[in-house]
Design brief:
The chain is mainly beta. The protein has one domain: Beta Barrel (Porin). 13% of the residues lie in helices and 50% in strands. It is built from five helices and eleven strands. It has an eight-stranded antiparallel β-barrel with strand order 1-3-4-7-8-9-10-11. A two-stranded antiparallel sheet has the order 5-6. The protein is elongated and about 70 Å long. 31% of the residues are buried.
Length: 234
């Protein structure tokens, strides 16, 4: 619990400096859902092998059956957003490379390191391609950032990067899927490994002001305090 308090305290501090969302109409966004941690990616010695079991959730992913991440973010402009993510997990699947097998293919083993508690807080800068694609519902993006992760009795800073996509099912509600590579500065991966963290959840964007309730945001409304028709800009 003390580690969880550290995560949320750090998130609150970072939020005081942050700004992200999805667009200028609704500059704030909140995302929450489940996350999965996969240590196999850094155990692999070859690039092609890093991705060979990328979606093998049954054998390699660490998941807890509850809401396990929260992201709060704000729009900066020109497709960029900034946000802070807090996440928690439990590591009971730790993947190590045993060596090259008889067929020349690397062999791996999965062990339980003792149900290690995992907590992380990360700053995220995201660039959305939605406007470039001129789409209103398909929102792919790249993201970079950094953060701090607690794993059992160990803790370490990470440099992060990855890809994601949000499918906006309605204007202000979307389904978000994201994969993040978190690079650890610890030389011994058995102490603190670099790893993949996957996210799946709901995103709600908000913050647009419509004083007269005519469906046109104040920033675009010719008469923001008097309801009017959309074709006449309110």
């Amino acid at each position: 619990m003390k580690h969880l308090n550290k995560v949320f305290a750090a998130a609150v501090m970072l939020l005081g400096l942050s700004s992200q969302a999805q667009d200028s109409d609704n500059p704030w966004a909140v995302s929450f859902g489940a996350n999965a941690v996969d240590t196999r990616f850094s155990a692999a010695s070859k690039l092609e092998d890093q991705f060979s079991q990328y979606f093998n959730a049954k054998d390699n992913w660490n998941i807890i059956p509850s809401v396990s991440y929260l992201n709060i973010s704000r729009h900066i402009g020109s497709g960029f957003t900034f946000g802070v993510t807090g996440s928690l997990n439990k590591i009971d699947k730790f993947v190590n490379r045993r060596g090259e097998g008889a067929t020349g293919i690397d062999d791996y083993e999965v062990s339980n390191p003792g149900d290690l508690k995992y907590y992380a807080v990360d700053g995220v800068i995201k660039y959305s391609f939605m406007n470039l694609l001129k789409s209103k519902w398909f929102d792919p993006y790249l993201h970079v950032g950094g953060g701090y992760t607690w794993l059992g009795d160990e803790s370490n800073g990470t440099v992060n990067g990855g890809v994601g996509v949000t499918f906006w099912v309605v204007e202000q509600v979307g389904l978000t899927f994201q994969s993040t590579y978190k690079h650890s500065f610890e030389d011994d991966r058995n102490v603190f490994p670099s790893h993949m963290q996957h996210f799946a959840g709901l995103t709600f964007k908000f913050g647009g002001k419509d004083t007269d309730g005519d469906g046109i945001y104040d920033k675009d409304d010719a008469c923001p305090e008097v309801a009017g028709l959309k074709q006449f800009q309110g």
